[in-house]
Recover the amino acids of this structure.
């Protein structure tokens, strides 16, 4: 495995329809038995959370009431409840922001999760792209000054880069809203670079502020339940709440949101993050034994972005073996030689890398 040093030439802008491809599409095949494509970190919610959700079935006759969960999230991030909006997953948060904000110059930092741009385009906004290259780290000085809405991920999907919060803060300027997708921040031990607990970033009043989006899907195995939230200045949160459909977040999702803010849940999430760091280092070490595999940047999320020749054919052959990895070419700024690999335990990693090595030799001979 080599560490990238050369600047990567961005691929041309594709049609917005490419933005709709997600990792779950890689699993729509009955042959898939080993999932390295989807970034949900556990196969199912932990037992204590399943028990809470099961007990919540008794409440389903009543309409959802978000107040207790909102207060729990607010306390968890040292916010006031009027700075918190529970959402039906992070995806709803992007849609609501696209409907409420009126940017003159919206800019999305790529490569990153495609839903922010897709939501903006669906709402009729013109979107510009700012491509990060080389090791995919953010240089705030290169972001166009005229952008009054900047959207980025931290840590970023798919690059796995964790940007220093100081770099994100340096994006602030009068009249600019910064939206930070922190869907994977709880996978970082200590959440060292989070801006979730910084309501002061909306001050002074001439700054539109920093908006943080969080997801409960990844750490807690709740992709099917749809649970997330937005943190931001109270006036913006109020506008988002007014744009949100009534009872958008189910009673069970609200129960989950409240439960994972409790001290023992936060301690469990921290332990999972530390274990994830070890599992990722093991994956990187095993990838290091493969020829023609490049990891472009220090990885800090529960997935790794790799570049390798004949990636498309390799991915196809892995699928035939029941192993799914995420194609990279649907992310703006990447091309056909990129793959994203989810971090799993060591046994699963050994299965993937051993088969990868065998297939890569076959693919290479076929290409020659």
């Amino acid at each position: 495995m080599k560490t990238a040093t050369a600047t990567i030439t961005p691929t041309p802008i594709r049609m917005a329809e490419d933005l709709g491809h997600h990792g779950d599409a890689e699993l729509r095949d009955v042959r898939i038995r080993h999932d390295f494509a989807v970034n949900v970190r556990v196969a199912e919610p932990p037992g204590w959370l399943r028990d809470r959700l099961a007990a919540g079935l008794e409440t389903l006759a009543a309409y959802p009431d978000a107040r207790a969960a909102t207060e729990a999230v607010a306390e968890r991030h040292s916010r006031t409840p009027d700075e918190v909006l529970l959402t039906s997953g992070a995806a709803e948060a992007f849609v609501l922001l696209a409907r409420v904000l009126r940017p003159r110059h919206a800019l999305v930092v790529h490569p990153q999760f495609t839903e922010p741009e897709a939501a903006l385009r669906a709402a009729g906004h013109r979107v510009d792209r700012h491509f990060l290259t080389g090791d995919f780290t953010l240089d705030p000085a290169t972001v166009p000054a005229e952008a009054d809405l900047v959207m980025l991920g931290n840590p970023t999907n798919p690059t796995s880069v964790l940007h220093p919060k100081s770099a994100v803060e340096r994006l602030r300027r009068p009249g600019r809203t910064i939206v930070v997708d922190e869907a994977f921040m709880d996978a970082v031990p200590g959440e060292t670079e989070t801006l979730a607990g910084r309501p002061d970033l909306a001050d002074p009043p001439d700054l539109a502020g920093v908006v943080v989006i969080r997801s409960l899907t990844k750490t807690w195995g709740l992709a099917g339940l749809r649970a997330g939230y937005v943190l931001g200045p109270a006036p913006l949160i109020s506008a988002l709440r007014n744009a949100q459909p009534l009872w958008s977040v189910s009673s069970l999702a609200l129960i989950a949101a409240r439960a994972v803010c409790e001290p023992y849940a936060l301690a469990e999430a921290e332990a999972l993050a530390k274990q994830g760091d070890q599992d990722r280092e093991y994956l990187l070490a095993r990838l290091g034994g493969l020829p023609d595999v490049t990891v472009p940047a220090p990885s800090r999320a529960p997935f790794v972005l790799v570049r390798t020749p004949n990636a498309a054919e390799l991915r196809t052959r892995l699928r035939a073996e029941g192993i799914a990895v995420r194609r990279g070419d649907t992310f703006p700024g990447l091309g056909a030689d990129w793959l994203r690999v989810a971090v799993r335990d060591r046994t699963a990693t050994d299965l993937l890398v051993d088969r990868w090595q065998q297939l890569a030799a076959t693919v290479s001979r076929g290409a020659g």
Remarks:
- Confidence is low (pLDDT under 50) at residues 2-17.
- The first strand starts at residue 2 and ends at 3.
- The radius of gyration is 20 Å.
- Residues 293 and 308 are 5 Å apart (CA to CA).
